[in-house]
Amino acid sequence: MDASALLWSVGILALPLIAAVPVSALFKSWLGNKASHARYREAVRRVLNSGSTLRKYRSALDEEARINQIDKDRQTRIETAMLYPLNIVHFMFVPAAILSPAITFIAFPVGLLIYPVITLFEMILIRFRALLSILAIVKRVTDWQVIGVRPPGEGSKRLDPVLVSVHRLPTPVLLGLFAYLVALYLPLEFQWTIITTILIYVILASFTSVLSAAVSGPLVFAATAERRMITLESYVKERIQPIVGVGLVALVIRQMIMVVRTPQFTPFDSPVQFSLSVITVLYSAAIVGLVIEFAYNRRRGDFVGSEFVKAVIDDMDPELYAYVRKGGEMSLISLGRLGEMEETIEDDLSFEEIASAPSAMSVINRPDIPEI
């Protein structure tokens, strides 16, 4: 075994993680690392932890931003980053944007191929209500109740679309690498391995894209026996991410061992070639993930989510709750039926209504941000 080649291959595989460290530091600086930025983040955290929505405390947060001399762009970035947090995995894919001109010719045709397949899965899962049937089966098997819980970002007009897109990127990217490593298991010539990878990836990415868009709304499983609530979005992630994450590690190690011990049974002459192929697939999948995000999620994501919620309302008529925390007490407050959500949102008092309402206080400058 060539020890230097093995070390080089491991180093190549570690490059995305190494590159993510400075990108993460730059991102934190871009968000804001001054004391005034930390104070504003604390104000947003208190609102989110109270169980209320940013929309309800918009006037208070805007006033807090003005006091701390935070412009609207930075205010938007801070709020979006708290609602859609990014970690080191997200920053691993940033170099794909830099390398995109070199690999777009690989990724773009795959993106074009995915679009009609996504449309097909949307028709099956949403229009033909296959996803609703799956939800009913999960509900029956687990004996969980489906309810609606008002999301903390509900009604927020200040979300950075780029940060939201990056937040959704890891799943389609890692699925691309997962499909490639699965295809390497098959006794195929390398060109057929690539074709098989594309086919597996197109199916997996299309299915998960529609699924993720559908469950990103207010629907929640209430597991009363387990004393917990699980958003449908979290439930889906809990099923997908362990399979992809653990599977990726196992498949990479397995393939690396095969390349080192029996290269004649693999498409690679050395582990360095294998590592380079992994990086190429990873960054190509990142470009495809961006194509999915901009071509599908931004255009159809909200529609798919609302259509699925409407289907659940028609079939199950779930209750809508606000999950409220005040001091050391936490409670679920019924707001009516989920189908009445829009009317309930309008019942929230605006800053002007709060200021003009009768009050025992002599002066109301702004609605207080809740103390936690």
Which terms would index this structure?
single chain; 372 residues; alpha+beta; 5-stranded mixed β-sheet; 14 helices; 5 strands; globular
Description:
Mean pLDDT is 83; it is low at 343-365. Helix content is 67%, strand content 8%. The protein has a 5-stranded mixed sheet with strand order 3-2-1-4-5. It is built from 14 helices and 5 strands. It is an alpha+beta fold. Helix 9 (170-183) runs parallel beside helix 11. The radius of gyration is 24 Å and the shape is globular. The protein has a domain at 84-145 and 156-216 and 233-310. The chain has helices at 3-31, 35-50, 58-67, 72-83, 88-91, 95-127, 130-142, 161-167, 170-183, 190-214, 232-261, 271-316, 341-346, 351-356; strands at residues 145-149, 219-223, 228-231, 319-326, 329-337.
SSE order and pairing:
Blueprint: H1 3-31, H2 35-50, H3 58-67, H4 72-83, H5 88-91, H6 95-127, H7 130-142, E1 145-149, H8 161-167, H9 170-183, H10 190-214, E2 219-223, E3 228-231, H11 232-261, H12 271-316, E4 319-326, E5 329-337, H13 341-346, H14 351-356
Parallel strand pairs: 1-4
Antiparallel strand pairs: 1-2, 2-3, 4-5
